[in-house]
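User: I've been trying to design a sequence by hand for this structure and keep getting stuck. Would you show me what you'd pick, starting by listing the structure so we're on the same page?

Assistant: Good idea, let's start from the same input. This is the structure you sent:
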């Protein structure tokens, strides 16, 4: 496991509330007996009163209590458990309609659900349900099913309501949309927080940690890159991804065998293909990658291409480090990069 950063660097990160270090270490305050994340908004302690730990569990075992403001033992960026439950239920049965009364019966205020889903997915809870049903409807239409029957089967109360909602999402009425494509997107849980995933019928288009950019901004970027509508849901590619990521985090899988469908410049594609050649448990420098693709001196361009990789973990941009071995910027945060490298070192040694 990687060592902690230098004490002076960690204290400077605490003072600055530097999110780049969030999860890379935890600070415990000797005078209060409480441990926190580096980004905690609480008043900063004197440096001689601080003890540092690699994980929150280590701080807890040392006798410190978790801060109630920054909640250091909670997964980074995870949605509330009830949000995850609702999403799982709807993805398992998209035609189901959960009303405000149903929410209230579960002890969830409808306005709370509306705010939570808008913050997480860029749409209200009921809009999320509609988009999910319409994604299923598109698949059914592609299989040749009757338009009116599809609308009723996926939970719309009228044919006209189904047609209007469908055209708003896909830009064409159901009859003209047969054979159309879309991107389906979802959230997966992981030990490092939620991961936004998306796929076309041809393969994965996005695998990225969710707390850096909101899902709504990812959906807009996907629409620009693919020129396809983006709807909540799952397909075979996302199901296989969920299974293989679970195996990876459990320590039973080192590499992935999943189809990808991403747009890239020839140079980006060359860099990403080279990333796939870096074995699990090993790293390469930006200079190493530039030399391997026959572009000596193109380290900065390699770094930019590395940062543009939309398929995190699977296309292992985290395995590229500085020439001196130090970690450099990572879209999911340096702490995640360090975690992934530590995890893969353990996988390679097993």
């Amino acid at each position: 496991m990687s060592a902690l950063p230098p004490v002076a660097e960690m204290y400077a990160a605490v003072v600055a509330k530097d999110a780049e270090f969030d999860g890379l270490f935890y600070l415990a305050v000797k005078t209060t007996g409480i441990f926190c994340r580096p980004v905690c908004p609480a008043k900063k302690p004197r440096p001689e009163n601080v003890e540092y730990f690699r994980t929150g569990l280590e701080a807890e075992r040392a006798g410190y209590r978790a801060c109630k403001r920054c909640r250091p033992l909670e997964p980074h960026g995870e949605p509330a458990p009830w949000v995850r439950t609702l999403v799982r239920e709807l993805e398992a049965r998209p035609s189901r309609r959960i009303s405000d009364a149903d929410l209230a019966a579960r002890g969830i205020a409808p306005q709370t659900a509306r705010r939570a889903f808008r913050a997480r997915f860029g749409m209200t809870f009921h809009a999320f349900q509609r988009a999910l049903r319409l994604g299923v409807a598109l698949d059914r239409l592609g299989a040749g099913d009757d338009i009116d029957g599809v609308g009723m089967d996926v939970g719309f109360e009228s044919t006209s309501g189904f047609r209007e909602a469908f055209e708003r999402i896909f830009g064409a009425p159901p009859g003209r949309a047969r054979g159309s494509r879309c991107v389906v997107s979802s959230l997966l849980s992981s030990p490092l927080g939620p991961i936004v995933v998306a796929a076309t019928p041809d393969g994965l288009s996005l695998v990225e940690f969710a707390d850096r950019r909101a899902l709504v901004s990812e959906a807009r970027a996907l629409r620009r890159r693919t020129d396809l509508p983006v709807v909540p849901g799952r397909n075979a590619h996302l199901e296989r991804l969920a299974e293989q990521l679970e195996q990876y985090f459990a320590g039973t899988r080192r590499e992935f065998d999943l189809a990808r469908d991403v747009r890239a410049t020839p140079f980006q594609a060359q860099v990403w293909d080279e990333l796939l050649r870096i074995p699990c448990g090993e790293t390469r420098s930006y200079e190493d990658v530039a030399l391997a693709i026959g572009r000596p001196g193109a380290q900065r361009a390699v770094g930019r291409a590395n940062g543009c990789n939309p398929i995190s973990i699977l296309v292992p941009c985290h395995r590229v480090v500085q020439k001196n071995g130090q970690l450099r910027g990572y879209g999911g945060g340096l702490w995640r990069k360090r975690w992934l490298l530590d995890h893969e070192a353990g996988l390679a040694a097993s």
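That's my pick for every position. To get oriented when you compare it with your attempt: The CA atoms of residues 95 and 214 lie 26 Å apart. The chain has a mean pLDDT of 84.
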